[in-house]
């Protein structure tokens, strides 16, 4: 069913006119007739080309404010005919329909319109109908028709046609078809997401409908994935923002692991919006989080939590990077720094470390945004974990209530434990983490590791006592037994915050009371797998 006929007629209808004139010129040089619509036809004529209007082909004028132009048998017959099928060719001849061998179409820029403040009626008018329909028809009929949806492909298609007397090789047509269907899928996903409210800034319950679409545009082709034998790419969703919307202002190309760690750090930093805060991440887990009177103070406090692990880490900031903080960051090896903005002085300082990747996002990410995780054969989809502990919330379940200072550290620790992989225990004191136990199969081991890390760091710093003495601790989920709580108490912590909800809650409460600890139940769990 394959047709290897040269392209004699091309239909061009594009929103993005980048490279259009140059490509059209190469088509004309190959003897290709140009058929076009609206603004594309005007652009081609202004460039000096002879163009046939679609209305002349269909014998029917554009109508409904341009909503109906190409939806006509004279167009779609020429697109869908299998030219290797004599019956299809006869049908075209019977109805005086000329085949179309190439479609060049990119769609109304719906994704770019998201978040621009347009009202619903205006957004609806940016939903393309004719373009996707033509694209789908041409892509389905790739054995007879070429479809180009990306200006980046113009040169390759033109070169192939020039080398083959105007014919587009079947292998290329198949690749172009696959790309077209992927583009349509991403486009439709953006529309479905907008209609479903996922692009709205306010937090709404995620509508887990029967059908779910995902789409994105590759913004970075990576050398490899988590490991050198794995391939990888970074794709931006239609709604943009967050890490995918950040501008890389210096440094080597981002790796897969850089992006994963930067996202973990940036999402953790978003927990502390409105305050100078710094998060340092290594292998997707925070190894230091702190708030301070300035970013520089917050960075020093965060680094002090675990300076060994911070080597080669990723740093996320809640505020514009300043010169003092940049100077401190430049003192050790850092893979990535991401911030909403940076001063010229700060950028000049980090320019002296050309290996450091610096990303500027313009804003902190949305903590409530939809999250997607691939599993074998499918996807897990959920709303983001934007839950927090409001002022005055939390139930004191022990005989002793937290002091005012303990309350401040407990609320801080509760925000810090959320981005740590489960099972997670975090010790905090004075607005900084001092020990982190992450990703353990048992909660008591997470507690022991957090204690050990704090003690080891204290010894390396020449401190006389472990930093957990007088600290508070947070647990991302309940203690199934009292042993985890006991390990925290033995380390010198004075207060604990946890969700509660275990069958052995009373046993854990009794253990806290026996040791004089204050304990708060939040009623909210923060598992992170």
Tell me what you see in this structure.
- There is one protein chain.
- The two termini are 49 Å apart.
- The strands form five sheets. The protein has a six-stranded mixed β-sheet with strand order 8-13-12-11-9-10, sandwiched between helices. A six-stranded mixed β-sheet has the order 16-21-20-19-17-18, with helices on both faces. Strands 3-2-1-4-5 form a five-stranded parallel β-sheet, sandwiched between helices.
- It has three domains: 9-195, Methylglyoxal synthase-like domain (Rossmann fold, 3-Layer(aba) Sandwich); 244-360, Cytidine Deaminase, domain 2; 395-521, 3-Layer(aba) Sandwich (Cytidine Deaminase, domain 2), CATH 3.40.140.20.
- By secondary structure, the chain is of the alpha/beta class.
- The protein contains 19 helices and 21 strands.
- The model is unreliable at 198-205 (pLDDT under 50).
């Amino acid at each position: 069913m394959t047709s290897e006929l040269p392209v004699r007629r091309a239909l061009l209808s594009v929103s993005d006119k980048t490279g259009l004139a140059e490509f059209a010129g190469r088509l004309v040089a190959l003897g290709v007739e140009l058929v076009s619509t609206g603004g594309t036809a005007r652009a081609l004529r202004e460039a000096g080309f002879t163009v046939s209007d679609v209305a002349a082909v269909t014998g029917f004028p554009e109508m409904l404010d341009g909503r109906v132009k190409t939806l006509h048998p004279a167009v779609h017959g020429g697109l869908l005919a299998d030219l290797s099928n004599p019956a299809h060719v006869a049908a075209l001849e019977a109805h005086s329909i000329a085949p179309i061998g190439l479609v060049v179409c990119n769609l109304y820029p719906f994704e770019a319109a998201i978040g621009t403040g347009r009202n619903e009626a205006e957004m609806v008018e940016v939903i393309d109908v004719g373009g996707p329909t033509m694209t789908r028809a041409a892509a389905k009929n790739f054995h007879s028709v070429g479809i180009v949806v990306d200006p980046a492909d113009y040169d390759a298609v033109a070169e192939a046609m020039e080398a083959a007397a105007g014919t587009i090789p079947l292998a290329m047509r198949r690749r172009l078809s696959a790309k077209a269907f992927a583009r349509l899928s991403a486009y439709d996903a953006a529309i479905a997401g907008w209609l479903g409210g996922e692009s709205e800034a306010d937090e709404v319950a995620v509508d887990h409908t029967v059908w779910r679409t995902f789409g994105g545009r590759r913004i970075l082709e990576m050398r490899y994935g988590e490991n050198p034998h794995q391939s990888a790419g970074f794709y931006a969703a239609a709604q943009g923002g967050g890490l995918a919307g950040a501008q890389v202002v210096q440094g080597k190309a981002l790796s897969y692991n850089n992006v994963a760690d930067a996202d973990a750090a940036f999402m953790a930093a978003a927990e502390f919006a409105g305050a100078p805060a710094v998060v340092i991440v290594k292998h997707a887990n925070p190894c230091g989080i702190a708030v301070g009177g300035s970013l520089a103070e917050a960075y020093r406090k965060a680094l002090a939590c675990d300076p060994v692990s911070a080597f080669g880490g990723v740093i996320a900031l809640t505020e514009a990077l300043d010169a003092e903080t940049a100077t401190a960051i430049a003192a050790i090896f850092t893979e990535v720094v991401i911030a909403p903005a940076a001063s010229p002085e700060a950028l000049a300082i980090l320019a002296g470390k050309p290996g450091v990747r610096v990303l500027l996002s313009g804003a902190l990410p949305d903590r409530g945004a939809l999250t997607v995780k691939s599993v074998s054969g499918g996807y897990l989809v959920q709303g983001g974990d934007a839950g927090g502990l409001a002022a005055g919330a939390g139930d004191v379940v022990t005989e002793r209530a937290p002091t005012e200072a303990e309350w401040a550290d407990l609320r801080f620790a509760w925000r810090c434990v959320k981005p740590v992989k489960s099972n997670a225990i975090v010790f905090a004191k004075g607005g900084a983490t001092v020990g982190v136990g992450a990703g353990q199969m048992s909660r008591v081991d997470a507690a022991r590791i957090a204690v050990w890390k704090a003690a080891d760091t204290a010894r390396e710093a020449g401190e006389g006592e472990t930093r957990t003495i007088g600290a508070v601790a947070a647990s991302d989920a309940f203690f199934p037994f009292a042993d985890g709580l006991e390990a925290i108490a033995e380390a010198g912590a004075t207060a604990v915050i946890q969700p509660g909800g275990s069958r052995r809650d009373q046993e854990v409460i009794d253990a806290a009371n026996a040791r004089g600890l204050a304990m708060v139940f939040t009623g909210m769990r923060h598992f992170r797998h």
